[in-house]
Description:
CATH class of the largest domain: Alpha Beta
CATH topology of the largest domain: FAD/NAD(P)-binding domain
Number of domains: 3
Strand content: 25-35%
Largest sheet: 5 strands, parallel
Strand order of the largest sheet: 8-15-9-10-11
Number of helices: 14
Structural class: alpha/beta
CATH superfamily of the largest domain: FAD/NAD(P)-binding domain
Amino acid sequence: MAAIRAGQLGLKTAVVERDELGGVCLNxxxxxxxxxxxxxxxxSLAKRGEEFGIGFDNLTLDFSKAVDRSRSVSRRLTxxxxxxxxxxxxxxxxxxGRLLDPHTVEVAPERQRxxxxxxxxxxxxxxxxxxxxxxxxxxxxxxxEALELRxxxxxxxxxxxxxxxxxxxxxxxxxGVDVAVAEMLPHLVPLEDEEISQELERAYAxxxxxxxxxxTVTGMDRTAEGVRLxxxxxxxxxxxxxxxxxxxxxxxxxIEGIGLEETGIELEQGFIAVDEQMRTSVPGVYAVGDVTxxxxxxxxxxxxxxxxxxxxxxxxxxxxxxRNMPRAVYCNPQxxxxxxxxxxxxxxxxxxKIGRFPFRANGKALALGDxxxxxxxxxxxxxxxxxxxxxxxxxxxxxLAQLSVAQLLEGTNEELGWLVYPHPSLSEAVKEAxxxxxxxxxxx
Length: 444
């Protein structure tokens, strides 16, 4: 994204990449996992066929074909990125880059040297691991290996109940794997509003996914069937047996071997420290994406990349507001949010009013057969400004952009309630939640 924007602005630009263009998100993260999630959704719907008047015998599931499709989607987008770079006259240099000084990058293995007035570090991140669960790529895997599984295990424990963990839990459970999720904190997706987390936990219980919150994996023993995990929770120690373990406890930045020490670039809690314009502590060097630790989301990285380039070009771009940046989790039901949770708002001493509307009272959700979830708005009690949006339900990630625009334009819950929404639509739940904040919801 940064390179394409630089090309648009007429800056002479080169991209150094050791793997495939598009980074982790396109090749080994967001895109292939969403393709697999789509397959899982179809499988889940097929299993509910009788509910919709559809009957069939001998349903067969081939996960390897779902994996093939996900890889095909990624390859198509990778080719698209290459085409966009070429269109914008951006040079693609294949290899591993290392800063020799603030204005010189050496590319291994050919030791080609590139000189530039400005350098942007966008080396991304990789899955974190923990000592009790040494990753071997076979029995104990990360999301990278999970995206390439051709043969599914009969059982799996996913360690980590954040976005990556809950998405894979849904995928594998839909295909018949006996899945349990172990999360150290009190709830799944612990950064979300507590009511949203609880709703997801109930949904997963109905789907047959085991949920162990407040639980820490303390050890692992290998067995003939796979592994046996020692898990410490509020009820004491217990053992969990499974064929495979997926470690999904977050990511760590790729900062090793890229010349940070030699150039004196400062770190903050293990990530590259940057200011509001994405400048590092060394003049001329910028950093964007996961390596900064600001917000570990692909769309945040893209926005940072554009911001850095526009800063380099002297356009004076507006700094990003990370608290109000949209967050989306593509489990089923989906989760979408931005801004303050109810707890955060109250802890900050803000006077708030809450608007809620359940999808079970929404006509489109009932017609789709997806009645789980709700829309929740956290609203300033005096001004009516939207402090936070928290949604769980079918396709709520597609409802998030309109609410982000409303927040950006300083819209109020009253204005969201005034707006006429198409009927029937899932978006009507937003209108009703906005009205509910003032006790004026019509359909509940």
